[in-house]
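Cont'd.
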Amino acid sequence: MEKEKNKTIIDKVWDLFASVRLAVVIFSIISLTSMIGTVLEQNAEPEKNIDILVKLLGVGHEAAHSIYGVLDSLGFLNMYHSWWFVTLLFLFASNLIICSIDRLPRVLKLVKEPVRPLSAEHLEKMSIKKTLTLKGKTSDIKEAVSSALKEIGFKPLESSDNNRIQFYAEKGNFTRLGVYITHLSVLIIFIGAIIGIFFGFSAFLNLPEGSASPVAYKDRGVEVPLGFEIRCDNFDVDYYPNSDMPRAYQSWLTVFKNGKEVMKKSIVVNDPLTYEGITFYQSSFGTVPDSMNNGIFVFRLVSKDGKTAEINSKLGEKFTIPGTSVEGRISNFSPAFSIDQSGRAFTYDEQMINPAVYIEFSESGTTKFSGWLLKRYPNTWNLPDGNKVEFLDFWGVQYTGLQVRKDPGVLIVYLGCIIMAAGLYITFFMSHKRIWVNISDEKKNMAILIGASANKNRVAFERKIEKFVGILNAGQKGGK
Amino acid sequence: MEIILFELALTFYFTATIVSIMELFKGTKTTSKIMLSLSIIGFALHTSNIIARYVISGHIPIANLHEASSFFSWCIVMLFFFLEYRYRLGLLGSFIMPVVFVLMLSSSMLPRKIEPLSPVLQSYWLGIHTVLAFVGDAAFAMAFGVGIMYLIQEHYVKSKRLGGLFQRLPSLQMLDEVNYRLITIGFPLLTLAIITGALWAESAWGSYWRWDPKEVWSLITWFIYALVLHVRLTAGWRGKRAAILSIIGFCAVLFTFFGVNLLLKGLHSFK
């Protein structure tokens, strides 16, 4: 009691931050507030969350509106970046640092302390205890014990007094630091995250096919200069057969630095492009509004007798199949083509889900035939007269949606993750094991007393001791 | 074909569950053997169902909620066999098979169509991340079952009714030890699942952490189990308190799995 009174405020604060009690409180508060953050949609339109409140609390629209106001002023609608949540994370980090600093010196002292020989009375009280008797000369038995200890992975030390010899050894001494390694890893992840927040950015860029940009855009349209230009050469979506589910979407990108081409790469989801620390992720795609009339059709024309030509053409323009007088006129286009029950063609989406082109063919002025050619269905490319129009691309009408990120802290975060995995492994799957083996001369026999302890997973260690005893016994039989 | 395998597995798990519950009231060595055999047959059928789906779709069958829930139960059954072999905890099946059956039943009620993978899911992380998560979750499910056994056993010890179930349930010390062991397996696996998820998110979405509901709920779960471990090692919260916490933790696991997918919006929705 007297001691408590003499403590300064600083001591008290230190003790508070060194306590697991505070950790429990912080864990709980972070968890509970985080739950609220998952129910309310973060950074969303106010109406969405007011609807959620109406449904969840069963209150009227008016009441939900005022609750929304309160939640908004408390930062719950961008909760994970609000001042108080960030403060909680900092408290968590401080708690972690101070509690580790507070305990570490003691643990380090323990870890540095080498294992010492113990008296027989001590060994009798150990959690793992075994006795056996062996026959043979002292020197042989000593040899056998020492080599058996090595066999189960220990490096034994020896001490002797009177007629008693003791081998003793320990293993996994450092494993008691596992907890602190894990704590350290959390801090490293925090540091990486902070570096990312202060020295990195997260932005977005919708880049139409054929255009280039020297900037990306953060929230609310704030420009971020890239320091180079990025151009989208082409963009393409590959769909699963007979389905409108994209199998893959791909952008062909080129990087220009000071007007010179410095990098070219095609990116897909899960495989981004990185240049000068800035990474471009394939994130979404869409159709540029009002661009259909300027889009360029890329066709490969194959005549009956195998002559080919690749052409670019626009809506309303004409082309001729090579080596023939067959002429095609592009008269209509649908980004998402379908046929209704009465056989009429219609467009079911503004996105280029199923691009189709209507071409009217004629030969020396007389109309031959006309029809829809579908990009995703090559069997529609064959014309009745044996010629073929391969619909390769409709270029310049789609944009690729790129997530643009710079995060210099990400490698530090990964390092933290690796250390965390190692720390947890050491903490939960490795243990500090100690063993003492007494050899005492009892007339004809040698009495062996084994005492051992492990701070974790004792059962497994006991099995190891059994093995050790087995080796000694086997040695006896072999010696006879 | 694979649907029949699933239905058969469900049926065997169901009968195993019935037998396991009967075992609580009147159990003999024979009933426990019958229960185990039924589970083993169910597990074999279930395994074939998973392999069949793998062959048909060409990826690990974990891409929709039906498959994920089924795979989750599969992991629990596998871990149950392992524990049965290693520790021989009496009546463990009576507390685990109902969990398995409920998970399989919910799986059976969800759409079973084999869907092609969306571009985000086409990554080797799909297998690594989900398997780590589900084996970890399975360990937490076992800890949940063992925690309930602890509470029941403690009730008998406290009320000094030392007949019947008391005799057949494992000792409090054993239950507490196994519960702790399971959490020390589940926690590192959950950590690895979160880490691999972060690596995947970084390569797919350009951010290792976006405070998406799934991420937040797995973090909440992580905090709960971190708390379980901390209060155990420093404040000596063992036994009853540890058992209760492991039950709360599993509720968080279930919400992270089902609740987030069914109730909350986010990037982890399967489409």
